[in-house]
Design brief:
This protein is an alpha/beta fold. It is built from five helices and eight strands. The mean pLDDT is 93.
Length: 162
């Protein structure tokens, strides 16, 4: 799904959402230059794979958090992890670097990617900001609705503390 298809899909689900259109951003630092309504709920997304290229993971945390991949590996029983290639990102989720988002999992037709979301998003307002498969906008959703969308697609979802 492209950006407009994501918008249409979310609208069809009858869930709360807001859209913030903005210039293209490729990292969290660039995002700080953008005026967004809920900066404390913006997501950082890491697309990683194991050393055998058999298992792929999307790890989503609040934008101000760091992810220690060794610690993640130990807590979640994975093989050694590294960032997946841009080619894998395009092939599996039809995304480009800088546009990594949980909504890209809706393009993962074989459910190859496991989704790990930080429980921090369950605090406060339960809002999360993610790209709509394009880094020129942020879609604000309720975390539970995002998780439901990913589960409906067939991907495994894990709520963990990071």
């Amino acid at each position: 799904m492209n950006k407009q298809e994501i918008y249409n899909f979310i609208k069809s689900k009858n869930i709360w959402y807001e859209i913030t259109e903005h210039k293209a951003v490729y990292n969290m630092e660039e995002l700080t230059q953008i005026d967004i309504p809920y900066p404390e709920y913006d997501a950082k997304n890491l697309f990683v794979r194991d050393d055998k290229k058999r298992n792929y993971y999307l790890i989503t945390v609040r934008g101000n958090k760091r992810v220690d991949l060794k610690e993640f590996r130990n807590k979640n029983g994975t093989r050694p992890l590294s960032f997946a290639s841009e080619s894998d990102l395009l092939t599996i989720m039809n995304l480009i670097a800088g546009a990594v988002t949980p909504l890209g999992l809706l393009n993962d037709k074989v459910h190859k990617v496991q989704f790990y979301i930080d429980k921090d998003f369950m605090n406060d307002k339960h809002i999360i900001g993610v790209h709509p498969n394009d880094n020129t906008a942020t879609v604000w959703l309720k975390v539970e609705d995002l998780i439901d969308l990913i589960k409906e697609n067939g991907n495994q979802v894990f709520e963990i503390e990071i």
